[in-house]
Amino acid sequence: MEELLRANEGFDLSTLDAGSTPGFTGKKADGEKALELGSGELATLQEKLFAESRFGGQKSVLLVLQAMDTAGKGGIVDHVLGDTNPQGVKAFAFKAPTDEEKQHDFLWRIRKQLPPAGYIGVFDRSHYEDVLIHRVRGFSTPEAIEERYGLINEFEAELVASGTTLIKVMLHISKDEQKERLEARLDDPTKHWKFNPGDLDERALWADYQQAYQVAIERTGDVPWHVIPANHKWYARLAVQRLLLEKMRELKLDWPKADYDVDEQKARLADS
Amino acid sequence: MEELLRANEGFDLSTLDAGSTPGFTGKKADGEKALELGSGELATLQEKLFAESRFGGQKSVLLVLQAMDTAGKGGIVDHVLGDTNPQGVKAFAFKAPTDEEKQHDFLWRIRKQLPPAGYIGVFDRSHYEDVLIHRVRGFSTPEAIEERYGLINEFEAELVASGTTLIKVMLHISKDEQKERLEARLDDPTKHWKFNPGDLDERALWADYQQAYQVAIERTGDVPWHVIPANHKWYARLAVQRLLLEKMRELKLDWPKADYDVDEQKARLADS
Protein backbone atom coordinates (compact mmCIF):
# COMPACT_ATOMS: atom_id res chain seq x y z
CA MET A 1 0.00 0.00 0.00
CA GLU A 2 2.78 2.39 0.94
CA GLU A 3 4.36 2.36 -2.52
CA LEU A 4 1.02 2.65 -4.26
CA LEU A 5 0.05 5.77 -2.36
CA ARG A 6 3.43 7.46 -2.30
CA ALA A 7 3.68 10.75 -4.18
CA ASN A 8 6.77 10.07 -6.29
CA GLU A 9 8.60 12.36 -8.71
CA GLY A 10 6.11 13.64 -11.25
CA PHE A 11 3.09 13.15 -9.02
CA ASP A 12 0.09 15.15 -10.27
CA LEU A 13 -2.71 15.73 -7.77
CA SER A 14 -5.09 16.93 -10.46
CA THR A 15 -5.14 13.51 -12.12
CA LEU A 16 -5.77 11.49 -8.95
CA ASP A 17 -9.32 10.14 -8.74
CA ALA A 18 -10.58 10.91 -5.23
CA GLY A 19 -13.15 8.14 -5.59
CA SER A 20 -10.62 5.39 -6.37
CA THR A 21 -9.42 2.68 -3.97
CA PRO A 22 -5.82 1.85 -4.97
CA GLY A 23 -4.67 -1.58 -3.85
CA PHE A 24 -8.07 -2.71 -2.66
CA THR A 25 -10.65 -4.38 -4.86
CA GLY A 26 -13.37 -4.96 -2.26
CA LYS A 27 -16.40 -2.86 -1.38
CA LYS A 28 -17.27 -0.94 1.76
CA ALA A 29 -18.20 -3.99 3.86
CA ASP A 30 -14.95 -5.72 2.86
CA GLY A 31 -12.98 -2.62 3.72
CA GLU A 32 -14.58 -2.31 7.14
CA LYS A 33 -13.87 -5.97 7.84
CA ALA A 34 -10.25 -5.53 6.75
CA LEU A 35 -9.93 -2.52 9.05
CA GLU A 36 -11.28 -4.55 11.95
CA LEU A 37 -8.82 -7.35 11.17
CA GLY A 38 -5.84 -5.01 11.24
CA SER A 39 -6.71 -3.23 14.46
CA GLY A 40 -5.34 -5.92 16.76
CA GLU A 41 -1.92 -5.87 15.14
CA LEU A 42 -1.79 -2.10 15.28
CA ALA A 43 -2.66 -2.15 18.99
CA THR A 44 0.12 -4.68 19.61
CA LEU A 45 2.64 -2.64 17.63
CA GLN A 46 1.70 0.44 19.62
CA GLU A 47 2.15 -1.41 22.90
CA LYS A 48 5.54 -2.73 21.81
CA LEU A 49 6.60 0.77 20.79
CA PHE A 50 5.61 1.98 24.23
CA ALA A 51 7.22 -0.98 26.01
CA GLU A 52 10.54 -0.44 24.21
CA SER A 53 10.58 3.18 25.26
CA ARG A 54 10.31 2.15 28.92
CA PHE A 55 13.59 0.28 28.40
CA GLY A 56 15.41 3.10 26.67
CA GLY A 57 13.93 2.86 23.17
CA GLN A 58 13.94 6.18 21.33
CA LYS A 59 11.42 5.41 18.60
CA SER A 60 8.19 7.29 18.07
CA VAL A 61 5.70 7.59 15.24
CA LEU A 62 4.15 10.77 13.90
CA LEU A 63 1.21 10.72 11.52
CA VAL A 64 0.65 14.09 9.87
CA LEU A 65 -2.81 14.53 8.36
CA GLN A 66 -3.59 17.31 5.94
CA ALA A 67 -6.73 17.74 3.90
CA MET A 68 -9.46 20.05 2.74
CA ASP A 69 -12.27 20.50 5.25
CA THR A 70 -14.64 17.53 5.73
CA ALA A 71 -12.12 15.08 4.27
CA GLY A 72 -12.27 12.98 7.43
CA LYS A 73 -9.11 13.74 9.41
CA GLY A 74 -10.92 13.49 12.72
CA GLY A 75 -12.50 10.18 11.77
CA ILE A 76 -9.06 8.75 11.06
CA VAL A 77 -7.99 9.26 14.64
CA ASP A 78 -11.22 7.76 15.88
CA HIS A 79 -11.47 4.75 13.61
CA VAL A 80 -7.87 3.89 12.84
CA LEU A 81 -6.36 4.53 16.25
CA GLY A 82 -9.52 3.90 18.24
CA ASP A 83 -8.47 0.39 19.27
CA THR A 84 -5.00 1.32 20.43
CA ASN A 85 -4.48 2.33 24.04
CA PRO A 86 -5.37 6.05 24.29
CA GLN A 87 -2.50 6.44 26.75
CA GLY A 88 -0.03 5.68 23.98
CA VAL A 89 -1.49 8.05 21.40
CA LYS A 90 -1.10 11.82 21.44
CA ALA A 91 -3.52 13.40 19.01
CA PHE A 92 -3.39 17.13 18.49
CA ALA A 93 -5.49 19.36 16.25
CA PHE A 94 -3.76 22.59 15.23
CA LYS A 95 -6.07 25.58 14.97
CA ALA A 96 -5.33 29.11 13.84
CA PRO A 97 -2.22 30.16 15.78
CA THR A 98 -2.61 32.17 18.97
CA ASP A 99 -0.99 35.57 19.41
CA GLU A 100 1.79 33.97 21.41
CA GLU A 101 2.38 31.35 18.72
CA LYS A 102 2.52 34.03 16.04
CA GLN A 103 5.42 35.65 17.85
CA HIS A 104 7.55 32.56 17.35
CA ASP A 105 8.74 30.88 14.18
CA PHE A 106 6.13 28.63 12.60
CA LEU A 107 7.72 25.40 13.86
CA TRP A 108 7.71 26.49 17.51
CA ARG A 109 4.20 25.29 18.30
CA ILE A 110 4.75 22.16 16.24
CA ARG A 111 7.83 21.14 18.22
CA LYS A 112 5.88 21.44 21.46
CA GLN A 113 3.44 18.74 20.33
CA LEU A 114 5.94 16.20 19.00
CA PRO A 115 5.32 12.68 20.38
CA PRO A 116 7.81 11.55 23.04
CA ALA A 117 9.62 8.24 22.55
CA GLY A 118 7.14 5.37 22.74
CA TYR A 119 4.15 7.35 21.49
CA ILE A 120 2.17 7.61 18.29
CA GLY A 121 1.48 11.27 17.61
CA VAL A 122 -1.22 12.37 15.23
CA PHE A 123 -1.33 15.90 13.86
CA ASP A 124 -4.69 17.05 12.53
CA ARG A 125 -3.26 19.90 10.44
CA SER A 126 0.36 20.82 11.02
CA HIS A 127 3.27 23.01 9.97
CA TYR A 128 1.98 22.57 6.42
CA GLU A 129 -0.72 25.14 7.10
CA ASP A 130 2.10 27.67 6.87
CA VAL A 131 2.65 26.82 3.22
CA LEU A 132 -1.00 26.07 2.39
CA ILE A 133 -3.44 28.61 3.80
CA HIS A 134 -0.57 31.09 4.07
CA ARG A 135 0.09 30.75 0.37
CA VAL A 136 -3.56 30.82 -0.69
CA ARG A 137 -4.54 33.67 1.60
CA GLY A 138 -1.33 35.64 1.34
CA PHE A 139 -0.75 35.53 5.12
CA SER A 140 2.98 35.41 4.40
CA THR A 141 5.15 36.79 1.63
CA PRO A 142 6.08 34.51 -1.27
CA GLU A 143 9.71 34.73 -0.09
CA ALA A 144 8.81 33.55 3.40
CA ILE A 145 6.82 30.64 2.03
CA GLU A 146 9.61 29.77 -0.37
CA GLU A 147 12.02 29.59 2.56
CA ARG A 148 9.64 27.39 4.56
CA TYR A 149 9.76 24.48 2.15
CA GLY A 150 13.44 24.15 2.89
CA LEU A 151 12.96 24.67 6.62
CA ILE A 152 10.32 21.94 6.63
CA ASN A 153 12.65 19.50 4.89
CA GLU A 154 15.36 20.26 7.44
CA PHE A 155 12.96 19.97 10.35
CA GLU A 156 11.62 16.64 9.15
CA ALA A 157 15.12 15.28 8.53
CA GLU A 158 15.94 16.18 12.12
CA LEU A 159 12.80 14.39 13.33
CA VAL A 160 13.65 11.24 11.43
CA ALA A 161 17.23 11.34 12.69
CA SER A 162 15.94 11.51 16.25
CA GLY A 163 14.03 8.26 15.86
CA THR A 164 10.62 9.41 14.67
CA THR A 165 8.88 7.49 11.93
CA LEU A 166 7.17 10.30 10.07
CA ILE A 167 4.15 9.42 7.95
CA LYS A 168 2.71 12.29 5.94
CA VAL A 169 -0.78 11.88 4.55
CA MET A 170 -2.99 14.08 2.45
CA LEU A 171 -6.58 12.90 2.37
CA HIS A 172 -7.84 13.80 -1.08
CA ILE A 173 -11.54 14.46 -1.66
CA SER A 174 -13.24 15.93 -4.70
CA LYS A 175 -14.98 19.28 -4.67
CA ASP A 176 -18.33 17.59 -5.27
CA GLU A 177 -17.78 15.24 -2.36
CA GLN A 178 -17.08 18.17 -0.08
CA LYS A 179 -20.32 19.80 -1.20
CA GLU A 180 -22.28 16.71 -0.20
CA ARG A 181 -20.59 16.52 3.18
CA LEU A 182 -21.19 20.18 3.92
CA GLU A 183 -24.83 19.77 2.90
CA ALA A 184 -25.12 16.84 5.30
CA ARG A 185 -23.80 19.03 8.10
CA LEU A 186 -26.26 21.80 7.34
CA ASP A 187 -29.13 19.31 7.14
CA ASP A 188 -28.44 17.82 10.58
CA PRO A 189 -28.86 20.04 13.68
CA THR A 190 -26.55 17.73 15.67
CA LYS A 191 -23.84 18.62 13.14
CA HIS A 192 -24.37 22.37 12.90
CA TRP A 193 -21.56 23.01 15.36
CA LYS A 194 -19.13 21.48 12.89
CA PHE A 195 -20.00 24.04 10.23
CA ASN A 196 -18.63 27.52 9.97
CA PRO A 197 -19.56 30.05 7.27
CA GLY A 198 -15.84 30.53 6.74
CA ASP A 199 -15.74 26.97 5.40
CA LEU A 200 -17.45 28.26 2.27
CA ASP A 201 -14.91 31.06 1.88
CA GLU A 202 -12.18 28.44 1.84
CA ARG A 203 -14.18 26.26 -0.53
CA ALA A 204 -14.34 29.15 -3.00
CA LEU A 205 -10.54 28.94 -3.19
CA TRP A 206 -10.54 25.21 -3.99
CA ALA A 207 -8.31 25.41 -7.07
CA ASP A 208 -5.78 27.58 -5.25
CA TYR A 209 -5.60 25.08 -2.41
CA GLN A 210 -5.11 22.17 -4.79
CA GLN A 211 -2.26 24.08 -6.35
CA ALA A 212 -0.74 24.85 -2.94
CA TYR A 213 -0.93 21.15 -2.04
CA GLN A 214 0.69 20.19 -5.34
CA VAL A 215 3.60 22.53 -4.71
CA ALA A 216 3.97 21.51 -1.07
CA ILE A 217 4.03 17.84 -2.00
CA GLU A 218 6.68 18.50 -4.65
CA ARG A 219 8.86 20.71 -2.49
CA THR A 220 8.79 18.76 0.76
CA GLY A 221 9.23 15.26 -0.52
CA ASP A 222 12.45 14.38 1.32
CA VAL A 223 10.12 12.48 3.60
CA PRO A 224 7.57 11.31 1.05
CA TRP A 225 3.92 12.25 1.03
CA HIS A 226 1.14 9.72 0.68
CA VAL A 227 -1.96 10.98 -1.03
CA ILE A 228 -5.01 8.92 -0.20
CA PRO A 229 -8.22 9.08 -2.20
CA ALA A 230 -10.79 9.83 0.49
CA ASN A 231 -14.21 10.11 -1.13
CA HIS A 232 -14.77 6.68 0.39
CA LYS A 233 -14.16 7.15 4.09
CA TRP A 234 -13.84 3.42 4.68
CA TYR A 235 -11.03 3.25 2.12
CA ALA A 236 -9.14 6.21 3.53
CA ARG A 237 -9.24 4.67 7.00
CA LEU A 238 -8.06 1.32 5.76
CA ALA A 239 -5.27 2.92 3.74
CA VAL A 240 -4.00 4.91 6.72
CA GLN A 241 -4.13 1.82 8.91
CA ARG A 242 -2.11 -0.16 6.38
CA LEU A 243 0.42 2.64 6.03
CA LEU A 244 0.86 2.63 9.81
CA LEU A 245 1.11 -1.14 9.91
CA GLU A 246 3.69 -1.26 7.12
CA LYS A 247 5.85 1.47 8.58
CA MET A 248 5.64 0.14 12.12
CA ARG A 249 6.45 -3.43 11.09
CA GLU A 250 9.67 -2.03 9.64
CA LEU A 251 10.65 -0.87 13.12
CA LYS A 252 11.12 -4.53 14.16
CA LEU A 253 9.59 -3.79 17.52
CA ASP A 254 9.75 -6.45 20.18
CA TRP A 255 8.93 -6.98 23.83
CA PRO A 256 11.87 -5.81 25.93
CA LYS A 257 13.84 -8.47 27.74
CA ALA A 258 13.70 -8.33 31.52
CA ASP A 259 16.64 -6.42 32.99
CA TYR A 260 16.19 -8.30 36.27
CA ASP A 261 16.44 -11.96 37.28
CA VAL A 262 12.93 -13.31 36.72
CA ASP A 263 13.32 -16.34 38.98
CA GLU A 264 14.74 -14.25 41.77
CA GLN A 265 11.77 -11.90 41.58
CA LYS A 266 9.33 -14.81 41.50
CA ALA A 267 10.88 -16.10 44.73
CA ARG A 268 10.62 -12.64 46.33
CA LEU A 269 7.01 -12.38 45.28
CA ALA A 270 6.16 -15.84 46.62
CA ASP A 271 7.45 -14.77 50.03
CA SER A 272 5.57 -11.50 50.07
CA MET B 1 -23.79 3.76 41.21
CA GLU B 2 -22.26 7.09 42.21
CA GLU B 3 -23.85 7.07 45.68
CA LEU B 4 -23.04 3.43 46.27
CA LEU B 5 -19.36 3.94 45.60
CA ARG B 6 -18.93 7.29 47.27
CA ALA B 7 -16.65 7.36 50.31
CA ASN B 8 -18.91 9.13 52.79
CA GLU B 9 -18.20 10.20 56.38
CA GLY B 10 -17.03 7.17 58.31
CA PHE B 11 -15.79 5.30 55.25
CA ASP B 12 -13.39 2.49 56.23
CA LEU B 13 -11.19 1.12 53.46
CA SER B 14 -10.16 -1.90 55.53
CA THR B 15 -13.72 -3.24 55.55
CA LEU B 16 -14.35 -2.90 51.81
CA ASP B 17 -14.34 -6.24 49.99
CA ALA B 18 -12.17 -5.78 46.89
CA GLY B 19 -13.92 -8.73 45.28
CA SER B 20 -17.43 -7.32 45.61
CA THR B 21 -19.51 -5.77 42.82
CA PRO B 22 -21.75 -3.12 44.44
CA GLY B 23 -24.84 -2.27 42.45
CA PHE B 24 -24.38 -5.04 39.91
CA THR B 25 -25.70 -8.55 40.33
CA GLY B 26 -24.52 -10.04 37.03
CA LYS B 27 -21.40 -11.99 36.21
CA LYS B 28 -18.43 -11.13 34.00
CA ALA B 29 -20.21 -11.68 30.69
CA ASP B 30 -23.11 -9.51 31.83
CA GLY B 31 -20.74 -6.81 32.97
CA GLU B 32 -18.90 -6.79 29.66
CA LYS B 33 -22.17 -6.55 27.78
CA ALA B 34 -23.30 -3.69 30.01
CA LEU B 35 -20.01 -1.89 29.35
CA GLU B 36 -20.51 -2.29 25.62
CA LEU B 37 -24.04 -0.95 25.90
CA GLY B 38 -22.92 2.18 27.70
CA SER B 39 -20.07 3.06 25.40
CA GLY B 40 -22.21 4.73 22.74
CA GLU B 41 -23.79 7.12 25.21
CA LEU B 42 -20.40 8.01 26.66
CA ALA B 43 -19.05 8.73 23.18
CA THR B 44 -22.02 11.01 22.47
CA LEU B 45 -21.63 12.83 25.78
CA GLN B 46 -17.96 13.38 25.03
CA GLU B 47 -18.76 14.76 21.59
CA LYS B 48 -21.39 17.11 23.02
CA LEU B 49 -18.91 18.29 25.65
CA PHE B 50 -16.45 19.03 22.87
CA ALA B 51 -19.08 20.65 20.64
CA GLU B 52 -20.24 22.97 23.42
CA SER B 53 -16.68 24.12 24.00
CA ARG B 54 -16.40 25.19 20.36
CA PHE B 55 -19.29 27.55 21.05
CA GLY B 56 -17.89 28.99 24.23
CA GLY B 57 -18.71 26.21 26.69
CA GLN B 58 -16.30 26.09 29.64
CA LYS B 59 -17.00 22.59 30.90
CA SER B 60 -14.44 19.83 31.14
CA VAL B 61 -14.21 16.50 32.92
CA LEU B 62 -11.27 15.17 34.90
CA LEU B 63 -11.08 11.57 36.02
CA VAL B 64 -8.38 11.02 38.63
CA LEU B 65 -7.32 7.40 39.05
CA GLN B 66 -5.31 6.24 42.02
CA ALA B 67 -4.52 2.67 43.00
CA MET B 68 -1.93 0.20 44.08
CA ASP B 69 0.16 -1.21 41.25
CA THR B 70 -1.58 -3.70 38.90
CA ALA B 71 -5.04 -2.50 39.94
CA GLY B 72 -5.89 -1.73 36.33
CA LYS B 73 -5.65 2.04 35.93
CA GLY B 74 -4.26 1.72 32.41
CA GLY B 75 -6.99 -0.68 31.40
CA ILE B 76 -9.63 1.83 32.48
CA VAL B 77 -8.43 4.35 29.93
CA ASP B 78 -8.31 1.67 27.26
CA HIS B 79 -11.63 -0.04 27.92
CA VAL B 80 -13.82 2.71 29.34
CA LEU B 81 -12.68 5.57 27.12
CA GLY B 82 -11.62 3.43 24.17
CA ASP B 83 -14.77 4.13 22.19
CA THR B 84 -14.71 7.87 22.63
CA ASN B 85 -12.88 10.01 20.10
CA PRO B 86 -9.19 10.01 21.13
CA GLN B 87 -9.03 13.65 20.04
CA GLY B 88 -11.37 14.58 22.87
CA VAL B 89 -9.56 12.67 25.61
CA LYS B 90 -6.30 13.75 27.21
CA ALA B 91 -4.86 10.90 29.22
CA PHE B 92 -1.72 11.51 31.21
CA ALA B 93 0.27 9.14 33.41
CA PHE B 94 2.28 10.87 36.12
CA LYS B 95 5.64 9.26 36.86
CA ALA B 96 8.22 10.13 39.46
CA PRO B 97 8.74 13.89 39.18
CA THR B 98 11.63 15.24 37.12
CA ASP B 99 14.28 17.49 38.61
CA GLU B 100 12.52 20.50 37.11
CA GLU B 101 9.18 19.44 38.55
CA LYS B 102 10.70 18.98 41.98
CA GLN B 103 11.76 22.61 41.97
CA HIS B 104 8.14 23.72 41.81
CA ASP B 105 5.28 23.16 44.21
CA PHE B 106 3.64 19.78 43.87
CA LEU B 107 0.63 21.10 41.96
CA TRP B 108 2.71 22.78 39.25
CA ARG B 109 3.03 19.74 37.01
CA ILE B 110 -0.58 18.80 37.69
CA ARG B 111 -1.88 22.17 36.50
CA LYS B 112 0.01 21.80 33.24
CA GLN B 113 -1.96 18.66 32.38
CA LEU B 114 -5.45 19.86 33.25
CA PRO B 115 -7.97 19.23 30.47
CA PRO B 116 -8.98 22.33 28.48
CA ALA B 117 -12.69 23.11 28.11
CA GLY B 118 -14.37 20.43 26.02
CA TYR B 119 -12.02 17.63 26.98
CA ILE B 120 -12.11 14.60 29.23
CA GLY B 121 -8.82 14.40 31.09
CA VAL B 122 -7.67 11.21 32.75
CA PHE B 123 -4.89 11.23 35.33
CA ASP B 124 -3.18 7.89 35.90
CA ARG B 125 -1.76 8.85 39.31
CA SER B 126 -1.94 12.51 40.28
CA HIS B 127 -1.23 15.09 42.98
CA TYR B 128 -2.29 12.40 45.44
CA GLU B 129 1.10 10.74 45.08
CA ASP B 130 2.38 13.64 47.15
CA VAL B 131 0.32 12.48 50.14
CA LEU B 132 0.58 8.74 49.42
CA ILE B 133 4.09 7.61 48.48
CA HIS B 134 5.46 10.75 50.12
CA ARG B 135 3.80 9.76 53.39
CA VAL B 136 4.73 6.09 53.21
CA ARG B 137 8.30 6.69 52.08
CA GLY B 138 8.92 9.82 54.07
CA PHE B 139 9.80 11.85 50.96
CA SER B 140 8.25 14.88 52.67
CA THR B 141 7.95 15.95 56.29
CA PRO B 142 4.70 15.18 58.14
CA GLU B 143 4.08 18.93 58.34
CA ALA B 144 4.39 19.34 54.57
CA ILE B 145 2.01 16.45 53.98
CA GLU B 146 -0.42 17.80 56.53
CA GLU B 147 -0.48 21.11 54.70
CA ARG B 148 -1.06 19.39 51.35
CA TYR B 149 -4.44 17.97 52.29
CA GLY B 150 -5.71 21.51 52.64
CA LEU B 151 -3.97 22.69 49.50
CA ILE B 152 -5.53 19.81 47.57
CA ASN B 153 -9.01 20.72 48.79
CA GLU B 154 -8.44 24.34 47.73
CA PHE B 155 -7.03 23.33 44.37
CA GLU B 156 -9.93 21.01 43.65
CA ALA B 157 -12.49 23.63 44.70
CA GLU B 158 -10.85 25.99 42.22
CA LEU B 159 -11.05 23.34 39.50
CA VAL B 160 -14.72 22.73 40.12
CA ALA B 161 -15.44 26.46 40.17
CA SER B 162 -13.76 26.82 36.78
CA GLY B 163 -16.17 24.32 35.22
CA THR B 164 -14.38 21.01 35.65
CA THR B 165 -16.35 17.97 36.70
CA LEU B 166 -13.86 16.22 38.93
CA ILE B 167 -14.29 12.49 39.46
CA LYS B 168 -11.87 10.92 41.91
CA VAL B 169 -11.52 7.17 41.87
CA MET B 170 -9.48 4.74 43.90
CA LEU B 171 -9.38 1.27 42.39
CA HIS B 172 -9.21 -1.09 45.33
CA ILE B 173 -7.60 -4.51 44.97
CA SER B 174 -6.65 -7.00 47.65
CA LYS B 175 -3.07 -7.90 48.46
CA ASP B 176 -3.69 -11.47 47.26
CA GLU B 177 -5.07 -10.24 43.96
CA GLN B 178 -1.97 -8.12 43.41
CA LYS B 179 0.19 -11.18 44.05
CA GLU B 180 -1.63 -13.11 41.32
CA ARG B 181 -1.33 -10.25 38.87
CA LEU B 182 2.39 -9.79 39.53
CA GLU B 183 2.88 -13.55 39.12
CA ALA B 184 1.09 -13.39 35.79
CA ARG B 185 3.48 -10.63 34.67
CA LEU B 186 6.51 -12.64 35.69
CA ASP B 187 5.16 -15.75 33.98
CA ASP B 188 4.66 -14.02 30.61
CA PRO B 189 7.73 -12.73 28.73
CA THR B 190 5.53 -10.28 26.79
CA LYS B 191 4.65 -8.71 30.16
CA HIS B 192 8.13 -8.60 31.72
CA TRP B 193 8.53 -4.95 30.72
CA LYS B 194 5.61 -4.06 32.98
CA PHE B 195 7.37 -5.45 36.03
CA ASN B 196 9.97 -3.68 38.08
CA PRO B 197 11.70 -5.14 41.15
CA GLY B 198 10.75 -1.93 42.93
CA ASP B 199 7.12 -3.05 42.68
CA LEU B 200 7.88 -5.61 45.37
CA ASP B 201 9.43 -2.98 47.62
CA GLU B 202 6.18 -1.04 47.43
CA ARG B 203 4.17 -4.21 47.98
CA ALA B 204 6.05 -4.81 51.22
CA LEU B 205 4.57 -1.53 52.45
CA TRP B 206 0.99 -2.56 51.64
CA ALA B 207 -0.49 -1.78 55.06
CA ASP B 208 1.17 1.64 55.13
CA TYR B 209 -0.26 2.48 51.73
CA GLN B 210 -3.75 1.40 52.77
CA GLN B 211 -3.45 3.68 55.76
CA ALA B 212 -2.21 6.56 53.60
CA TYR B 213 -5.19 6.08 51.26
CA GLN B 214 -7.58 5.99 54.21
CA VAL B 215 -6.25 9.29 55.51
CA ALA B 216 -6.17 10.91 52.07
CA ILE B 217 -9.76 9.90 51.41
CA GLU B 218 -10.84 11.31 54.76
CA ARG B 219 -8.93 14.55 54.47
CA THR B 220 -9.65 15.45 50.85
CA GLY B 221 -13.33 14.67 50.68
CA ASP B 222 -14.62 18.13 49.73
CA VAL B 223 -14.85 16.63 46.27
CA PRO B 224 -15.83 13.08 47.22
CA TRP B 225 -13.81 9.99 46.49
CA HIS B 226 -15.26 6.89 44.92
CA VAL B 227 -13.63 3.65 45.95
CA ILE B 228 -14.23 0.89 43.45
CA PRO B 229 -13.65 -2.76 44.26
CA ALA B 230 -11.31 -3.83 41.48
CA ASN B 231 -10.43 -7.49 41.92
CA HIS B 232 -12.87 -8.02 39.05
CA LYS B 233 -11.50 -5.87 36.25
CA TRP B 234 -14.77 -6.06 34.33
CA TYR B 235 -16.62 -4.61 37.32
CA ALA B 236 -14.16 -1.79 37.89
CA ARG B 237 -14.44 -0.76 34.24
CA LEU B 238 -18.22 -0.84 34.31
CA ALA B 239 -18.31 1.13 37.56
CA VAL B 240 -16.04 3.86 36.19
CA GLN B 241 -18.09 4.05 33.01
CA ARG B 242 -21.29 4.44 35.01
CA LEU B 243 -19.72 7.10 37.21
CA LEU B 244 -18.72 9.03 34.12
CA LEU B 245 -22.15 8.59 32.56
CA GLU B 246 -23.95 9.72 35.69
CA LYS B 247 -21.77 12.77 36.21
CA MET B 248 -21.81 13.76 32.55
CA ARG B 249 -25.58 13.41 32.25
CA GLU B 250 -25.84 15.97 35.04
CA LEU B 251 -24.05 18.48 32.82
CA LYS B 252 -27.15 18.64 30.58
CA LEU B 253 -24.96 18.77 27.52
CA ASP B 254 -26.56 19.51 24.19
CA TRP B 255 -25.66 20.15 20.59
CA PRO B 256 -24.92 23.86 20.14
CA LYS B 257 -27.38 25.86 18.10
CA ALA B 258 -26.04 27.30 14.86
CA ASP B 259 -24.85 30.88 15.29
CA TYR B 260 -25.35 31.47 11.57
CA ASP B 261 -28.40 31.43 9.29
CA VAL B 262 -28.64 27.82 8.14
CA ASP B 263 -30.79 28.51 5.08
CA GLU B 264 -28.52 31.33 3.95
CA GLN B 265 -25.50 29.02 4.18
CA LYS B 266 -27.35 26.27 2.31
CA ALA B 267 -28.00 28.72 -0.51
CA ARG B 268 -24.34 29.79 -0.58
CA LEU B 269 -23.26 26.16 -0.66
CA ALA B 270 -25.66 25.30 -3.48
CA ASP B 271 -24.08 28.05 -5.59
CA SER B 272 -20.53 26.99 -4.87
Folded structure, characterized:
The structure is a homodimer of 272-residue chains. The mean pLDDT of chain A is 96. Chain A has twelve helices and five strands. The longest helix of chain A has 27 residues, at 28-54. In chain A, helix 2 packs parallel to helix 11 (233-249) and helix 3 crosses helix 11. Chain A has helices at 2-5, 28-54, 73-80, 99-102, 108-112, 133-137, 142-161, 175-187, 198-203, 206-219, 233-249, 262-270, and strands spanning 60-67, 89-93, 120-124, 164-172, 225-229. Chain A is of the alpha/beta class. The radius of gyration of chain A is 20 Å and the shape is globular. Chain A starts with a helix and ends with a helix. The first copy, chain A, has a single domain, classed as P-loop containing nucleotide triphosphate hydrolases (Rossmann fold). Chain A has a five-stranded parallel beta sheet, sandwiched between helices. Chains A and B meet through helix 3, strand 2, helix 8 and helix 12 of A and helix 3, strand 2, helix 8, helix 9 and helix 12 of B.
Tag the structure with descriptive keywords.
homodimer; 272 residues; 5-stranded parallel beta sheet; Rossmann fold
